[in-house]
UniProtKB/TrEMBL annotation, chain A:
Pathway: Porphyrin-containing compound metabolism. This is siroheme decarboxylase. It catalyses: siroheme + 2 H(+) = 12,18-didecarboxysiroheme + 2 CO2. Residues 30-76 form the Siroheme decarboxylase NirL-like HTH domain. It comes from Candidatus Desulfobacillus denitrificans. Its EC number is 4.1.1.111.
TrEMBL record, chain B:
This is Siroheme decarboxylase NirG subunit. Pathway: Porphyrin-containing compound metabolism. Keywords: Lyase. It comes from Candidatus Desulfobacillus denitrificans. It catalyses: siroheme + 2 H(+) = 12,18-didecarboxysiroheme + 2 CO2. GO terms for molecular function: lyase activity.
Length: 182, 147
């Protein structure tokens, strides 16, 4: 990838993210490491050494930087991302719920702990079209399974659920993911 | 995909070590050699059973933003609007869903300012109002799909 697009653009020192949280400080080397690994980790016995060679760094520095990126949350984790469809999880429903704002944090934490919920967020309503403030993505092997899972969420929420809906995806229009600096 | 592949997918969703020979460290408890694990990972990626293997980045921690957004697209205009939305590099995923809001996409940008700019471009290109649903709080994000 062309190097010109990468450094020098370190994160602004002391910058704040969208919710006011302090940002991790990245330097040009961190950004090169991110660009080098966003396509995946090398499938060789010593992958961090291979990255080090590619970037002109020592393997110790690559590993130390990756550990720091993990600690600061820039890297959520290192691991495998399965294709839901290939694992047979062909039904994915975005379940959405209207729950009282003052109770949403406790309810969201509880819903997020359910084993079939892969993402769970508090998001704003858009009234009158959209009364829902709690979003929980549910993956199942059939629409019936997803609907049964949604019933479990409804049971958990009880009287706190004022309205809900499930939006099934009927078509993938695009799926690329984020690419930086290339 | 056999039992060994399923084990690999289940175990490696949880994380991967940072050490000199991480494949070796993971292969042993799975009862595999390092070379077998690497060959199987290669095949799982080639057959698209895995979409990725490596670090997962949180763009928000780097100063960027991810925002879920939706459009209510008239059926007759659906293909045209899908093309216009997909043409933006900031659109990372886009799904058709069955609701009055029938097109749901994720905008991913390297800066916070990139989000309103992308929304503005979509509104001008499509003539439709973009409903943005930025996350106010994250309760859980993770893959725990059992292979």
């Amino acid at each position: 990838m062309p190097d010109a697009a990468l450094s020098p653009s370190p994160s602004p020192a002391g910058g704040r993210g969208e919710h006011g949280e302090p940002l991790a400080r990245l330097d040009g080397i961190d950004r090169r490491l991110i660009v080098a690994t966003q396509g995946g980790l090398p499938l060789v016995p010593r992958p961090y050494h291979a990255l080090a060679e590619q970037l002109g760094l020592s393997a110790e520095e690559v590993m130390a930087r990756l550990r720091r990126l993990l600690e600061s949350g820039v890297v959520r984790r290192i691991g495998a991302v399965p294709n839901h469809y290939a694992l047979g999880y062909t039904a994915n429903g975005m379940s959405v719920w209207d729950v009282p704002d003052e109770r949403i944090d406790a309810l969201g934490e509880a819903v997020g702990k359910l084993p079939f919920v892969t993402h769970c967020y508090h998001r704003p309503r858009a009234l009158p079209l959209w009364p829902y403030n709690l979003f929980a993505m549910v993956h199942g092997k059939s629409r019936d399974e997803v609907e049964a899972q949604v019933k479990q969420i409804a049971a958990l929420l009880g009287a706190d659920c004022r309205a809900h809906d499930v939006l099934f995806s009927s078509r993938i229009l695009k799926k690329t993911g984020l690419r930086i600096g290339g | 995909m056999d039992e060994v592949d399923r084990n690999i997918v289940n175990v490696l969703q949880g994380g991967f070590p940072i050490c000199d020979e991480p494949y070796l460290a993971v292969a042993e408890p799975l009862g595999l050699t390092e070379a077998e694990l690497i060959a199987r990972l290669q095949r799982l990626l080639e057959t698209k059973t895995l979409t990725r293997f490596g670090p997962m980045f949180q763009v928000e921690r780097m100063g960027g933003a991810f925002v879920l957004a939706a459009l209510a697209v008239p059926q007759a205009d659906y293909e045209r609007v899908a093309e216009q939305v997909n043409a933006l590099p900031e659109v990372a995923h886009n799904y058709r869903r069955e609701h009055a809001l029938n097109m749901w996409f994720v905008l991913a940008t390297e800066t916070l300012e990139g989000i309103p700019a992308a929304i503005d471009r979509i509104e001008r290109a499509t003539g439709l109002k973009v409903y943005a649903f930025p996350k106010l709080k994250e309760y859980f994000v993770g893959m725990k799909l059992h292979a």
